[in-house]
User: What shape does this take?
Amino acid sequence: MTEYFPEFGALQSVVWKGEVLGEGRSAVPGPSDLRVSGVAVLTAAAAGELRTAYAWQDAPGTPSVLADVRPHVPESPRWQVSDAFTSAVTGERYSGSFSVDFTRKVVVFDTRNPEKPPSSGGA
Assistant: This one.
């Protein structure tokens, strides 16, 4: 997960699930869309860095995730979101939502067709 989401920083743990979207019965073969959801527990240092690096706003409700991930989403959190963080993670290459509870140091994510960020140099 850290290869796909390096902006999260150091992780203590992560639970995730991927699911192919659609029925896969297309008459024309092609790539399938993939939904990936998860719950990542950050280290204290990583959570602190995220909190100060981006502007965050309170987000009502519970983030949407795949059913297998739902039991791992903390109850009664204070979710916060950041458009700038979402843009940094996705690089505008795919769609996703990222909700953070800084008290619990948890990021809940739900993405469509996540991509590894382009490498920053060398071969």
User: Anything to note?
Assistant: The longest strand covers residues 11-20.
